[in-house]
Fold these 2 entries.
Entry 1:
Amino acid sequence: MDNQSVARILSEIAQLMEIKGENRFKVRAFENAARSVESLSEDLEALAARGELNSLAGVGKSLAADIEALLTTGSCDVHRDLLDELDPGLLDMLRIQGLGPKRIKVIYETLGVSNLSTLEAAARAQQIRALAGLGAKTEERILAEIERLSHDEGRTPLPAARAIAQSIRDKLATLSEVTKIAIAGSLRRGRETIGDIDILVASETPAPISAYLVELAEVAEVLAHGETKTSVRLVSGIQVDLRIVAPSSFGAALHYFTGSKEHHIALRTRAKRSGLKINEYGVFKENDGPAIASETEVDVFKALGLTYIPPELREGRGEIEAAAAGTLPGLVELTDIRGDVHMHTVETDGRATILEMADAARTLGYNFIVITDHSEAVRVANGMTPPRFREHIKRIREADAAYADLRLLAGIEVDILKDGSLDMEHELLADCDWVVGSIHSHFALDSKEMTQRLITAMATGLISCLGHPTGRILGGRPGYKYDLDAVLEAAVEFGVAVEINGSTGRLDFNAEHAERAHRRGAKIVLGSDAHSTRGLEDMDFAVQQARRAWLGASDVLNTLSVEDLLAAVRPTLRR
Ligand code: DGT
Ligand code: CA
Ligand code: CA
Ligand code: ZN
């Protein structure tokens, strides 16, 4: 079990204890332990192996034993007892934004409501607004949240699912029976959340491959076990479907199991019109006979009179017509990216120094990076005061002088305060090279205020790009409410780019927003928002969302030279 999962369960325990009415010192102990584990930079398992769990702040003997149990068995006595005693539906209620343990305790004790469906009924019957400390607004919010949760029920954020899928793929790939292997399904298309993981293998001898999968330590349950079709549920809860096909039909099967369903429906209609049939084994003439294409996806598309359609576009949204007309855009690729405009260092909440980030960026082959640490208002991240920022700019410029083949740009992720003002002296913002403007507080303003807040910030002429522009947390908090089109219009007017933030908890803008921004003429820039050297690799996710938005290399500012990048934003500063 990884650190984040352990932290999540510890905090779950604290919340359940609070709902149950345990004494607050016990609750606090689990909260503190969760926080220690969450901020630990080392692998918890390594710490446990050295017998040093109680070196963690707030972790004594008994908590160390609980963590040990979580690491080895995925559960612990306290957690199990709480779940036995309380309705696990309370955990679902905790996923509702704005309903903490305190409010849930009130609802639970007075109405006996302990899961989402009884909660929904109570809200519809207007029973929530009558409770102390709750109101009509909370009641409406609860209903909206239940609606939202029903949409991503049981889906896993893409970055988490991808890490799991790649690890399973890499294990299977070691088998000599495996000729080819690929991740298919929504993961390959880069959908932001994943229902299940689909892995496709080409092999002449499938049986040992399926047998190997069901025996893996991370498998919790075997759902189906055949020679060529096996499904398992992992300990992490996510399902994996494995299909094994003959190498000669790998391309057709890969296309079939990549989906999407909508893409397939549109494609079948087109095939039919040309007297062709398409399935997981290949493309066929309507009156059967052998497959006319099956070995590679390129062959499959070609047989249908189409150019190759990248997986990210296979959503049944006009990609087939475009491929037939030869007008599909050449999508941006990771190798087109010449630099990264959003990252943090030890100066605030990052883990690496300026030089360590620079070295890692050079290894990635970048021409430039912008160091963008937090401003003062983000206290939890140790945000910079103006004097600290002034010194930081100096250090970045000094470091830059030491690199011949990498430009280090001095920047900041400045907080956009509640009234739209910027959390830094304007003179310093004008002096540095790149300014990411982001919101990290007061998420709950109404749409009108939030729109005005963002526009006011951009009107300063000092912002280069809006960072994580919706503020949503993937699989967590929804984005704040504002008038997207009005904000995009202002971004165009003031020469502010909008970011596709690739950090694993965000993917913000997502593909849909990015496409809309592009259509409205806003410039788009990709940022990893790295907090470590490893985090720079999250650029990959930003690129994938850009591809899903149909963006080519020329639609993304990161493919420009430093001079052109800087000339593309903040036009008022150059006047
Ligand atoms: P997910 O798992 O909900 O995130 O979405 P997908 O797209 O990965 O869907 P999944 O896992 O049910 O199926 C993977 C692909 O296999 C899907 O995109 C298309 C193909 N597929 C699965 N079942 C069917 C089917 O009944 N008919 C057709 N035409 N294709 C199917
Ligand atoms: Ca799937
Ligand atoms: Ca599946
Ligand atoms: Zn941020």
Entry 2:
Amino acid sequence: MKFFLDTANLQEITEARSYGILDGVTTNPSLMAKEGIRGKKAILAHYLAICNLVDGDISAEVLALDYKGMLDEAHELADLHSNIVVKIPCTMEGIQAINTLTQEGISTNCTLVFSLGQALLAAKAGATYVSPFVGRLDDICEDGISLVASIVECYDTYGFNTEVLAASIRHPQHVVRCLEVGADVATCPLSVIQSLFRHPLTDSGLAKFIADSLK
Ligand code: E4P
């Protein structure tokens, strides 16, 4: 399973990259705004900075809601760097745009996916990735991991090539469950990746080894 970092913060990306386990980055308009990145020029420059930090797929989201606007933005983003994956919302216009971009050979990430039906549309349009939002489903008392599992199973059954990118990951248990159900990618905040390192028995075991070595 690939590990993407879900952030637009360059320091966090640099930190996660130093662990040697980072395969890519996902961003969204909220994460860009959190970093104070506003305006087209600044946004494009920031995506380029991320691409220069990480040699992997970098999801950059369009802001337009109409088909033509999405395509115009997608072309601009894709021209920035070969690692850009254009993130497009799972709307009717979005699915149409993904279909066109797929025919043009541009990688896409179909985002804001909350149902198996939406995942079917993303795969049929040829999306490179589909992003089911695990945490946001859990937030409304649905089961985000079950959706990831269903998408993985159906894509396998029907031979779709779209990769399942589990998004809106909130804690290490989400990551482990995504691994168990066969997600291709989990995109996580830095804190979640760091939580995976920690185990109290590792800490106490290491403390005893060090203490014994000094006897
Ligand atoms: C990823 O592509 C999404 O932008 C992100 O995981 C959303 O996470 P959130 O639900 O924690 O905002």
